[in-house]
Design brief:
The complex is a heterodimer of chains A (180) and B (285). Chain A is mostly helical and 180 residues long. In chain A, 80% of the residues lie in helices and 0% in strands. Chain A folds into two domains: 77 residues, Rna Polymerase Sigma Factor, Chain: A; 78 residues, Winged helix-like DNA-binding domain superfamily/Winged helix DNA-binding domain (Arc Repressor Mutant, subunit A, Orthogonal Bundle), CATH 1.10.10.10. Chain B is 47% helix and 14% strand. In chain B, helix 2 runs antiparallel to helix 6, helix 2 runs parallel beside helix 7 and helix 8 crosses helix 9. Classes of the chains: A mainly alpha (180), B alpha+beta (285).
Amino acid sequence: MLAARLAAGDDHALAEVFDALGHSVYGSALRVLGDNSAAQDVVQEVFVELWRHPGRYDPAVGTLRTYLTVLARHRAVDLVRSELRRVARQERSYRLTPAPPPADAGDEVVAADTAGLVRSAVQLLPASQRQVVELAYFEGLTCREVAHAVGIPEGTAKSRLRLALAKLEEMLDRQLLESS
Amino acid sequence: MTPADDRDLPVLPPGLRERVLAASLRARDAGRPVPDAPEISPVEAFSRTASAFYAVLCFLDDDDWRTPVLRGLDVQGLVGHLIGVEADVHRALAGDPDVADAEHVESTQAAALDQAARRPAQTRADWRRAVDRTLDLVRPADAPARVAVHGLRLPVSALLVVRAFELWTHENDIRQAVRWAPSVPDPSTLRLMTDLAARLLPHARAALAEPVDVRLVLTGPGGGTWDVTMGSSPASASVAIVTDAVGFCRLAANRVIPADLDVSVTGDPARAAAVLAAAATLALD
């Protein structure tokens, strides 16, 4: 009934869902991100998605709570992943720039902290996965180039990268939680 | 769905609820269904329901045409009634004041009874010609904007949706009489019908002691959400009624009673019952 009401454009139904499950969705995002502001963005994204596409929730598959909290976790992991890439790009940029311009001290500390977290997480990966991550994200190689450089099939390079990213997310998740 | 009860859950930041709901409504207006049916014109809705009605007539055998349906009429008599309705609509579109307040059944009874001596194929062809004539009269850009017929004074666009309601209802009267499965209008046509019924709801005869704000949520294809007030505003009470779009149209056509509907109500059940009873008096058949 709730899904049907959402599909019919009943915004009161959306408010009811938020009142009942907003805490769980926020908690799910916060556990991954450890950051209040980013978690709020994820909550907004999740509820907008539910409102725009209520048909994507299938009651036969699970409860609405499970659907929304899993969606929140996925969106939060996406954010972490994109943050990883951003930090990797920044890392490459620092290396290629001999004398970085003076920056705001606070920003520098935050960037260095995050980059440090990522670097230490990468060091904890198994060697084969660490190698592909370094080539792909710190050296900027494509998957095909990584495969060629390491001497493995492209499919293997992709699966190693996927595994590595999943592990990194888990490790960063823990670290962010500990630091929050 | 139950409220979150996990003690470890964090406190929601202030303002997040408002922010999330506002962002959602920016992404999709309240009231609009998803998936939304492609928008069609009332002329198209009338044309589609006429085609569906004609298709049923084409599949009836001679015995079916003699099956009793409604008000003492058999199928052929009912089609004759509809030929009479088209004739009155043609006169109304030509500005004939005599049909403005003519009674819907009485005015068309002669046309209904005239069919008894005719072959079904003749009745069917006459009805088709009459409907095509209606379509020819309402399609031009300079067609009349408003019309007065059978006690109704309304825009031609609304009249065509009322007529779509009527054809769909009588198509299902015939289906029921000859024991065929009921039909459902396509979502685009249904959306125009639900919108019309919801907008007419405040004008229905309601046995309400005081004005009431009604949130009407019609689920399924062609549905949507409407906020209307029964009685003169401002209302001191409110009810929310959730039911299926097709079922609500059958109610508005006076073909089912509220007890036949699967309805979910928030608010005073007695007020909701009065609203649903009022919907049945719309008699959009």
